[in-house]
Design a protein that fits this description.
The protein is of the alpha/beta class. The protein has one domain: Metallo-beta-lactamase, Chain A, CATH 3.60.15.10. The protein is built from seven helices and ten strands. The strands form two sheets. A five-stranded mixed sheet has the order 1-2-3-4-5, with no helix packed on it. Strands 6-7-8-9-10 form a five-stranded mixed sheet, covered by helices on one side. Helix 4 (82-91) packs antiparallel against helix 5 (96-104). It starts with 8 loop residues before the first strand and ends in a 5-residue tail after the last helix.
Length: 223
């Protein structure tokens, strides 16, 4: 995505289409919805939100009527934190009116993932895994099993970033972040393709190196 370089995922099955994160504004979400319809000829049926930051959740209202999934506790946080999301979006350059509209119409998850949850998209199963806390207290990963010998794909949210150093804001839990990346690596394995929340796709070696760098940065010793 332009602006904040968020990486959006789309997973198409025979009977359903899931989008992973929705952009920073309702306009972003609407543009994504039109683009997906143009490519697939079908509407999005499921939304997975990887974490509660404005550039990943504020486009969700553009997907009215779909099933929304998030880590356990995300819904309550979003409902309580609408003003904070709006201000955060504005601090990062989102137009005041666009930020206010997106916050007012924000859609909280209908489905709360405590451990792991499988979502059926027809001929494709998607595994949602609550692998946090780390980047935030509500980090969700999305695992797409490979078909016909293709590697598994793991959407990581901002637990992993490729286009810059991982951002640790006031809601990060840095002491627990390396362990969240261990869980992410266990989920996908050595041969998976990992999709960061920002930037280009990476491999397990990159994720492991970032895990070690975070442990050094935050003074986390091996358990």
């Amino acid at each position: 995505m332009p602006g904040w370089d968020e990486t959006i995922g789309v997973i198409a099955g025979a009977t359903g289409v899931m989008i992973v994160d929705t952009g920073a504004t309702i306009r972003d979400g609407a543009d994504l919805r039109r683009a997906i319809r143009g490519v697939l000829g079908r509407e999005v049926t499921h939304v997975a939100l990887t974490h509660p930051h404005f550039d990943h959740v504020l486009g969700t209202a553009a997907f009215a009527g779909v099933e929304v999934f998030g880590a356990a506790g995300l819904g309550d946080l979003l409902r309580r934190g609408k003003d904070e999301l709006r201000h955060d979006a504005m601090r990062h350059g989102v137009d005041r009116d666009a930020a206010a509209e997106a916050a007012d119409l924000l859609v909280a998850p209908h489905h709360h993932v405590h451990g792991q949850l499988t979502v059926e998209l027809g001929d494709r199963q998607v595994l949602l895994a609550n692998v946090g806390p780390g980047h935030t207290a509500h980090d969700l990963a999305v695992l797409v099993p490979g078909k016909h010998g293709a590697p598994e794909i793991v959407f990581c949210g901002d637990l992993v970033e490729e286009s810059g150093e991982p951002s640790a804001g006031p809601d990060a839990l840095p002491q627990q972040w390396p362990a969240a990346l261990d869980r992410l690596l266990a989920l996908g394995g050595e041969d998976a393709v990992y999709v960061p929340g920002h930037g280009a796709v990476v491999d397990a070696r990159f994720v492991r190196a970032q895990r070690n760098a975070l442990a050094t940065r935050f003074g986390v010793t091996p358990s």
